[in-house]
Amino acid sequence: MRILDRLLFGFLSFVAKHCIDAEVSAWNTTDSMICESCEFFSVFHQLTDSQLATMYHDYRLETYQQDWERFHPGYIKSVGQFIGGPDEAACRLRSLNPYLVQSLQDHSLQLDSFASILDWGGSDGMILPDVFLNAKRYVYDISSWDAVDGVTKLNSMDEAVKFDYIQIMHVLEHVYDPLQFLEAPLAHLNQGGVLYLEVPIEFNGTDLIEKVISNQRRLKAHEHINLYTPRSLEALVLQKNLQVLDLRVETIDFHWCQGPCLRLLATQKPAH
């Protein structure tokens, strides 16, 4: 990895407040790094598990909303009142459900064979897909949200419990070491199970360095401390010895905005 010295990187100040205990201006400078081989981009300063827990314990609740409003006036009216609600969930499921149906059928994976599904980091479990009709539904999350009806909230993970489908949606851009982070959910994926990853696309890896050096733009991180391209997301799962079933870029409707995202579907490689 190559460290880009004092890269101008938009870094929301409440992240700094909670994670490095320093009060800074709304746009701050932080050391960052990019892998020139796979294009993975991240901040350089590691966030501990306890710092992340502090940062997300009140995720989307009143104190969280007020932190955003403090540094981004108008956030609650334009975004906060919509994000994470039933309208967003309905919009996202309208694209996620048919994507999973088609992608799984393309690989001869029968939807009725999935007995248990898990949303890892899925808040209240509202965006668990509706296509696995025979599956028990679970969500694992560090926030204080209660699960919606029909979903069981897990506050800790029994190492013996396995799932046939695990989704991790818009989480990997928030964790410092995604390679290490994936170890836990993958330990709970059944042999032959399916992993679904979804992350936003926020930069073009081919011209990132040139734009930064010439100061053509600042990268707006907010809570996102990693940025992905198709190349870097694929490299991540290949490092975990997974087989990629599908990888594509699609514009996803979140109800309060639309944006390009990466969808990746993977499974464990067959045991020899």
Structure description:
Mean pLDDT is 81; it is low at 1-27 and 216-221. With 272 residues, this protein is an alpha/beta fold. The protein starts with a strand and ends with a strand. It has nine helices and 13 strands. The strands form three sheets. A seven-stranded mixed sheet has the order 7-6-5-8-9-13-12, sandwiched between helices. It has a four-stranded antiparallel sheet with strand order 1-3-4-11, with no helix packed on it. A two-stranded parallel ribbon has the order 2-10. The longest helix has 21 residues, at 86-106. The protein has helices at residues 13-19, 49-56, 62-71, 75-80, 86-106, 178-181, 183-187, 208-213, 230-239, and strands spanning 2-4, 9-10, 32-34, 41-43, 116-120, 136-140, 152-154, 163-169, 189-200, 219-220, 226-227, 242-253, 258-268. The radius of gyration is 19 Å and the shape is globular. The chain has one domain: Rossmann fold, CATH 3.40.50. InterPro entries: SAM-dependent_MTases_sf. Keywords: Methyltransferase, Transferase. GO terms for molecular function: methyltransferase activity. It comes from Cyanobium gracile UHCC 0281.
Label this structure with key terms.
single chain; Rossmann fold; disordered N terminus; 9 helices; alpha/beta; about 270 residues; globular; four-stranded antiparallel sheet; about 25% strand
